[in-house]
């Protein structure tokens, strides 16, 4: 996954969390929505923590670099 894709995924998760937090639901749906939001927040935090721990976030860019099957791409 290249740098641009990682940023896109993180942005999409953040947007989804924001949309869900603005929904006005009641009853059992409210509990389920709260669980989904909590899971999204945990996933976003995990991405940020793992990137910081591996020094994958260049200080000047503040964007994570995902390393894996392909070489890191800095655009």
Task: Please explain how this structure is put together.
The protein has a domain at 3-53. The protein is 61% helix and 0% strand. The chain has helices spanning 3-22, 28-53. Helix 1 packs antiparallel against helix 2. The longest helix is centred in the middle third of the chain and has 26 residues, at 28-53. The two termini are 13 Å apart.
Describe the main β-sheet briefly: none
SSE-based structural type: mainly alpha
Can you count the beta strands? 0
SSE run: HH
Key terms:
75 residues, mainly alpha, 61% helix
Can you describe this structure in just a few lines?
The protein is mainly alpha-helical and 75 residues long. It has two helices and no strands.
How do the strands and helices of this protein lay out in sequence?
Elements: H1 3-22, H2 28-53
Helix pairs in contact: 1-2
